Amino acid sequence: MTTAVLIATIIKVVVFFHIAPIMVSLLTLAERKVSAWIQFRYGPNRVGPWGLFQPIADGLKFFFKEEVVPEGANPILFRLAPALAAGPAMMTIAVIPFTFPILIDGQPFSLAIADLNIGVLFFIAMSGLAVYGILLGGWASNNKWSLLGGLRSSAQMISYELSMMMSVITVVMLTGTMNLGEMFTYQAHHTWVLFMFPVGTIAFVLFLIAAFAETNRLPFDLAECETELVGGFHTEYSSMKFALFFMGEYSAMFMMSCLLATFFLGGPSFFGLIENMDSIWWRAILGFVVFMIKVGFFLFFYIWVRWTLPRFRWDQLMYLGWKILLPLSILNLTATGILIATGVL
Questions:
Q1: Domain for residue 56, yes or no?
Q2: How far, in Å, CA of 182 to CA of 160, rounded?
Q3: How far apart are CA 274 and CA 285, in angstroms?
Q4: Residue 112 forms beta bridges with which residues?
């Protein structure tokens, strides 16, 4: 590894690993602003111009609040659970290619932190780990509401993870790779997976629905619904431990939005207007802008749905996951194999 490549790698790691915390802070503000817009209110508007400094005030508040460990709680697991909830989502950012490669010392240089040939498997592994933080947080709190929230979350995430993985395998079959950078390169030279009707479109809808369930967002927030479980798995948490759970949720939203843009919307590509540019640097800059616009659309959709739809009942949630989405994802995967084998795709 040359000196230029080493310096570029360090800069890449520092910059892209800070994207997730920055996006989390902005999402907390966006959540309030969009909900206020939907409900015809102002939202945060007193801390800085247009309330832009509200996330900083919230962060300082969490740092100075008292940390409480309830009597009878498992002290080790109680403290470990928030980190386990936030860590996997932040680690998944490592395989996201935010834009097209650039040239360093005349060699292509990927702008994913870790350009893994098994990036899809890394994502599957990290999404499987995310449930442990919520489950342990609920169990270790020694609170019946927290325990119920943790159990609900584990059942929910396992149920919808199956449909999500089936849709991801469909994308792998259509693009012929498990490297996320090669996925958007394939779509840039062919067509976006979303437009590979019908199997690509169905896979997109399945992944989108499952993403809401995996991130415990409305209408799938049965793990923390206040009307039934007070606050669910994080009822007993305070201070930065409480904040870490929400950092995990918003990091997972950002990560799922990045994956939706990469798997189904061609990542930074835009119908040949950017990917065929002669300038490597302008292609990378504009590709990053396009990618973040696509991600921003899905993040807005996350917030919009939360403040628009009511939550499902628990039996409706499980029925949808096991009796509708899972059979449909299996049929879609089978159809994809048949269409590829017969040369249609």
A1: no
A2: 26
A3: 10
A4: none
The span from the CA of 333 to the CA of 166, in Å, is 7
Q: Which residues contact 201 (CB under 8 A, 6 or more apart)?
A: 194, 195
Sort residue 111 into left (φ over 0), alpha (ψ -120 to 50) or beta: alpha
Residue 109 φ then ψ, to 5°: -125, 110
Whether 21 maps to a domain, the answer reads no
Is 41 within the bounds of a domain? Answer: no
Q: Rounded distance, CA 311 to CA 320, Å?
A: 13
**Residues 109-161: tens digit of each pLDDT:** 888 888 888 889 999 888 888 888 888 888 888 888 888 888 888 888 888 98
User: What is the total count of domains within the chain?
Assistant: 1
pLDDT digit string, tens, across residues 173-186? 999 999 998 998 89
User: Using CA atoms, how far apart are residues 307 and 304, in angstroms rounded to an integer?
Assistant: 6
- How far apart are the C-alpha atoms of 278 and 103, rounded to whole Å? 13
Q: Which residues contact 262 (CB under 8 A, 6 or more apart)?
A: 96, 97, 180, 183, 184
Please, where are the H alpha helices in 307-341? 314-319, 326-341
| Alpha-carbon span 217 to 308, nearest angstrom | 12
d(CA 248, CA 82) in angstroms, rounded, equals: 8
In which domain, by residue range, is 307 found?
62-102+116-341
In a domain, 27, yes or no: no
By residue count, the chain amounts to: 345
